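Go through the following before class.
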Amino acid sequence: MPQKSGSLTLHVSWLMFAKTIAFAFNLALPMLLVRRLNQTVFGVQRQLFRVVGTSVTVLPLGFAMSSYYFLPREPARQKEIILNVLLYNAFMGSLACGAFLLWPVLLDLIFHQPALTGYAHLIGVVILLWIVAQALEIIPIANGEMKLASVLIMSVQLTRTAIYLTAVIGFGSVRALIWAAVVQGCLQTGVLWWYLYSRFGSFWRRFDWGLMRAQLSYAVPLGLAGILYTVQTDLHGYFVSNRLGAAVFAVYSVGVVDLPLMTMLQEATN
């Protein structure tokens, strides 16, 4: 059974340490990529992964975070809670994936660059996998396993950095980086499935629609409010990219990189 005791300070310390290490990897990755890719290719990579990042943040509306509230309060229905999280995330990810499969022109509309439509199908797959896999960093915390959650947070960034660098060194193309993101998504999804089965057993056998409604009523208002924050942090990048192109956006995306030390402490405490 997971160890759910311990002080708030200890829990925050574990998560703060993990988020700091993860941030270091996340900050180092573009610095390494920019030295291996030319300016325009790097800009295209940043544009496409900006779409992925925004989609993964906005589309789930924070539904997985409802497990923070429900998992410790509904011990008899934990399997149903977990199933609802996976079903909701898979549904929202599938909508995004389907949109890019059916209308690859969406990337041209967003960035005013017709050449990007060739990446739309793979971007849709990445969004689907990453939305499903995002629960890997949430459910262990909701289940009281702070040390394991910290290890998983660090491992996600470490493997992501390693896979991306392998792709850029071996192939040096945007498509290779997107395939690396697909591999990373598959890896995280596989680890998530292993974790859920090891902790909750055959959680997929019973669906509870009443519980789904309760989780939606809890998560969606918070998720809608969170969209405003995402608009604040992401919209300027889309504007610059659409108006000035990939090469200028490459410089801009590096110049406005955030150093969210206080944000990481706040998230860990929350």
User: Anything to note?
Assistant: The two ends are 24 Å apart (CA to CA). The chain has a mean pLDDT of 86. DSSP finds eleven helices and no strands in the chain. The longest helix spans residues 209-255.
